[in-house]
Specification:
Oligomer: single chain
Structural class: mainly alpha
Number of helices: 4
Helix content: 40-55%
Order of helices and strands: HEHEEHEH
Number of strands: 4
Distance between the termini: 29 Å
């Protein structure tokens, strides 16, 4: 962590946290203005925030912040029929498989538990399912 350049830290925060904030803010504006008003915002959240990997302090910190953004958006959006909830599935696919292979290599030198994964098609179906739930069933307490 002590060798992480501040510019790299800022870049990760700008992308992961500020980007999510700006997208959420615009989504709320659109959902409040539409007829009928309201909608669902589904944030993506990787398990790394619960099980950080070595040399991932900026990424992990921003993912923790996304949880706060999601929960606050859920609370603030209720009055406008806007639900916000996390999608916490760990996806499989070419990119995820390469990352998983890199983590396996890292585990050879650092004792880290393996992370379960789920196929991206299942994640897509879960997001569609969550997006179609009645608003009164939406929660963000997890």
């Amino acid at each position: 962590m002590e060798d992480l350049p501040f510019e790299q830290w800022k870049s990760v925060v700008e992308t992961n946290l500020n980007g999510a904030f700006l997208c959420t803010q615009e989504a709320i504006r659109l959902m409040k203005a539409q007829t009928p008003r309201g909608g669902r915002i589904i944030t993506t959240d990787r398990s790394r925030r619960h099980a950080p990997r070595p040399h991932s302090v900026a990424y992990t910190a921003t993912k923790h912040a996304i949880t706060g953004l999601t929960r606050s958006t859920s609370l603030d959006g209720r009055a406008h029929d806007i639900a916000c909830q996390p999608d916490r599935h760990r996806q499989r696919g070419d990119r995820a498989d390469r990352a998983h292979a890199a983590r396996r290599a890292c585990r050879r030198t650092v004792k880290v538990a393996a992370e379960p994964t789920i196929d991206t098609a299942h994640v897509g179906r879960a997001v569609v399912y969550m997006a179609n739930l009645p608003l009164d069933t939406q929660t963000c307490s997890s």
